[in-house]
# Entry
Amino acid sequence: MSTPVLYDNPGPRMRRRVLIGSIVVGVLLVAVAAVVLTRLAAQDQLSMERWGPIISPFHPQFLALWSGLGPALLNNVVAAVLAMALSLVIGTLLAVARISSTRTWRWAVVGFVELFRGLPVVVAIFFAYTVFPEIGIDLPLLWYLVIGLTAYNSVIIAEIVRSGVASLPRGQAEAASAVGLTGWQSLSLIQLPQAFRVMLPALISQLVVIFKDTSLGFIIGYEESVRFTRIAIQTLENPLQLFFALAVIFIVINYLLERLAIWVERRLSRSASSPATGPSAPAAPALAGTATTGG
# Structure
């Protein structure tokens, strides 16, 4: 059986052009990389004196660097976990309020969502850091960062959840009403679980954004990885190497989060499809028996 496609399969001439184009682009990328590495080597940016503190356990600064960078990265993780949890809870509540509230309250929720969705996350963090002490609320720096991240990301998650509920067939709510469920019961027991499953990739992508945004904590003096790296640069004098290593660490962590999202999505899809296949299996013999009797 042929697999349907949205475009024509390329013919021999198009495949040849694609191959030639790929080779040309690959050669250009290799040439650019060679030029960059040559210039970095000429500026002594590839020497072990600069990379040693990062990759060589025998360098005198290696232990000091990683013993400070490790706790700083842990502070990023702590802020991300707190902001993720609060954003999921508050975002879900905002989505439910927008879906099920009266017109007056719905406009209030929409105004709140649009206000914070249009606000840059760095402004939200700095606003919490500046305003809360002015009104007599003194908190650890961690919580100013978490509040700013939550204020911004909760409204994004609220829109994701609301879109997930809106994408469900109308028959879901109608069937729930037909069996006697209230609007809240239908939303909490039927619609929200399906919405989370449908919008899981978008939700996980937003959670990855939250982790990356924890690096903005340096603007308020929070002891996270970017702030530590900026301090370490003053001693080691290798900004290119340290920021490159930090970028690799963030990329690896975000990649692991994305792989976790794929694994969770597959598990949820498998668990959602398994009950449906169980009860439907005995239906085939019954239909077959009916057809035989009718004949």
In short: The chain is about 80% helix and 0% strand. Confidence is low (pLDDT under 50) at residues 276-295. Residues 239-280 form the longest helix (42 residues). The CA atoms of residues 99 and 254 lie 32 Å apart.
